[in-house]
Amino acid sequence: MQKTVITYSEMSALRECRLQHHFKYERKLIPKVTSQKLTFGHFGHLVLQTLYSTKSIEFTSDALKKLIADYEDQIKNSGLPEQEIHIQKLSTLEFSAAIISYLFNQGKKDLERFQFIDIEKTFEIPVLHPISHRKIHKMFFAGKIDAIATDKETNQTVILEHKFLRSFDADVDMQISAYCYAYGRLSGTFPSYVIYNVIYKPNLKKDSTKDLTDFSERARKSVENNPPIKINVSRGPEDYRIFEEELYEASKEKRKVNAYKHRNVDTNPGGHCSWKCAFKDICMKPNDQHLIEKLFDVRTKEHEELPEGGA
Question: Which residue has the higher pLDDT, 33 or 74?
């Protein structure tokens, strides 16, 4: 039997919709638009990883400029329509406004407050039976923690997670438990609390905007009106017990998926679709290969959140 790996994102997909999981993790589909466009979260994580690693705002600022310049060159040669390229240029201005504001305000405070222990920490731990606590044969929970640090103000170990959002309405309760649980299993000591760095991206109208200077100024003002925030959350033994049960059940479901790869898949019974779902255009036509090839690329990795070769 081959090793089976499940991540928190995959657990969420299994819980939300089996058909979504089928498209994303079994067929490894990724929207063509997503694979070409700027991903606010991905680029934001790269910038903060650079900041925490180098401890230099100036170096990180220069790296950000190069990152954006390289991206603009990439999008210019992507084959996208001119209007779409222009919209992406405006998106980079929104991204720059949000992340630069963080660097020179909250980022500076982070460097003063935290002693960083590990950055972009990947993990892979055996799944345990929630009652006997025996390891499930060749079944692993894997993921990546943005940063682990000592809070100099309290001398406590904390996890830092970054959220790059248009609004903070996501349910993060189980994700917090997942990362605290994983770190506790790895180190033998559970973190005192988790700090969520929530960085808002402006969401300005772009279609008719031609004046880049004016748009950049409006993006900056939007960031001023929605500054980054920090949310402190702690977890305890009962939260870890509940997560361990959820992980075990999701692992069993993943094993079933692997055993019956060629069966028909339906949405979750009684489930309600999210119209933000990336697969809504093929949900009712899962076997329309022409439509799928038109709208989607195929990933080479099973889990896009993990580095090449796994955790």
Answer: 74
